[in-house]
């Protein structure tokens, strides 16, 4: 996964693991269009009401958390463009807090919650999926295109075809009818391919394409090489789907679950495989903390591989150093055998190089 997403996941995981003694952990979520004045008034009311809590410890902890939120809110004259989420509460005797004010996805809920755990949903939705896929479903009468980002399907376009049915009009010769029908089908397939190119090759470019539809139609489309070569070369699978609708797109995702699950780690797996291959050939790689740092100092890193077992702060520093020189930083999961091997053998640090450093 990309390290910016890793950092957010790490912060979310930390918040998820926090537990309060009773309902002492406070979550405040503010969407972009909500005034902070109203939020401050709500915090003041909650602080006053907390004085009525019977338990001395709970009352103190809740008011400490609310006081911390008050102070954190003072840093903002207005609600940030993507909204604001603040967490505060006493965990294991220490007052903890966290602020999210620059999420990639705007906060879409107004929330005040005091519970035994933090409500992470307002920030969890901002996690950017590492993979985005193009979806195409065709039947004789229509086509549907969409994008799959994480668990979310965005329907991009649906349109009807003008392809005639198999029954010809009276007076038409069979050959003439078939020629006209083939022409209409060809134009329809070209229309679908053009729409796919516009939809899937614009930023962000999709990481793969999944085709579905009525068997004969989708097979003709695939075998006819209508798709742009960058999309055609990244077809992950073809599945039978009856209807080219939004529901058909959902059905396509369900049927392609296995290939999507496998593709989720493809980039990581391919980079690791390349690292081990180049290493075995005595090629341009670096591994271990010292050698990798030297490669970074020389500006030689093309792809930096970092185990997710290393400290998040270190991962952030390594990402900055890599991206500053135009390289890419990938976080390698230790949940896989290859990732665990990479972590154990090389201390979780390695790099594919642009040029040798020896």
TrEMBL record:
Family, per entry: Belongs to the eukaryotic release factor 1 family.
SMART domains attached to this UniProt entry: eRF1_1 (SM01194)
Keyword check for Protein biosynthesis: yes
Membrane-crossing residue ranges in chain numbering: none
Name of the gene encoding the protein in the UniProt record: erf1
Tree of life domain: Archaea
Pfam families: eRF1_1, eRF1_2, eRF1_3
Protein name from the UniProt record: Peptide chain release factor 1
GO-annotated cellular components: cytoplasm
Keyword tags: Coiled coil, Cytoplasm, Plasmid, Protein biosynthesis
Natural source organism: Haloferax mediterranei (strain ATCC 33500 / DSM 1411 / JCM 8866 / NBRC 14739 / NCIMB 2177 / R-4)
Compartments, as annotated in UniProt: Cytoplasm
Lineage of origin: Archaea, Methanobacteriati, Methanobacteriota, Stenosarchaea group, Halobacteria
SUPFAM superfamilies tied to this protein: L30e-like, N-terminal domain of eukaryotic peptide chain release factor subunit 1, ERF1, Translational machinery components
Keyword Protein biosynthesis: yes
Gene Ontology molecular function: translation release factor activity
Ranges for domain eRF1/Pelota-like N-terminal: 1-128
């Amino acid at each position: 996964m990309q390290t910016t997403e890793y950092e957010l996941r790490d912060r979310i995981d930390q918040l998820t693991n926090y537990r309060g003694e009773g309902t002492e952990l406070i979550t405040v979520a503010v969407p972009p269009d909500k005034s902070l004045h109203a939020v401050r008034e709500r915090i003041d009311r909650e602080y006053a009401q907390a004085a009525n809590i019977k338990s001395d410890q709970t009352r103190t902890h809740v008011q400490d958390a609310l006081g911390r939120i008050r102070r954190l809110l003072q840093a903002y004259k207005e609600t940030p463009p993507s909204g604001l989420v603040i967490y505060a509460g006493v965990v294991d005797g220490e007052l903890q807090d966290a602020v999210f004010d620059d999420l990639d996805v705007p906060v879409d809920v107004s929330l005040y919650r005091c519970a035994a755990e933090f409500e992470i949903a307002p920030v969890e939705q901002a996690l950017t999926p590492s993979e985005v896929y193009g979806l195409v479903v065709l039947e004789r009468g229509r086509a549907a295109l969409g994008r799959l980002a994480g668990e979310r399907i965005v329907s991009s376009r649906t349109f009807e075809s003008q392809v005639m049915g198999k029954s010809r009009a009276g007076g038409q010769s069979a050959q003439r009818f078939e020629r006209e029908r083939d022409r209409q089908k060809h134009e329809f397939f070209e229309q679908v391919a053009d729409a796919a190119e516009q939809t899937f090759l614009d930023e962000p470019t999709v990481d793969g394409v999944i085709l579905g539809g009525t068997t004969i139609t989708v097979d003709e489309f695939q075998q006819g090489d209508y798709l742009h070569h960058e999309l055609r070369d990244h077809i992950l699978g073809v599945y039978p789907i009856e209807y080219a609708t939004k529901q058909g797109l959902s059905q396509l995702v369900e049927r392609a679950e296995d290939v999507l699950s496998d593709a989720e780690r493809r980039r990581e797996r391919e980079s690791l495989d390349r690292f081990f291959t180049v290493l075995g050939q005595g090629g341009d790689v670096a591994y271990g903390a010292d050698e990798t740092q030297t490669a970074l100092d020389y500006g030689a890193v093309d792809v930096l591989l970092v185990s997710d077992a290393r400290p998040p702060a270190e991962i952030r520093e390594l990402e900055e150093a890599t991206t500053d020189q135009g390289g890419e930083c990938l976080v390698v999961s230790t949940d896989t055998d290859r990732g665990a091997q990479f972590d154990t053998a090389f201390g979780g640090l390695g790099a594919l190089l642009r040029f040798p450093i020896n």
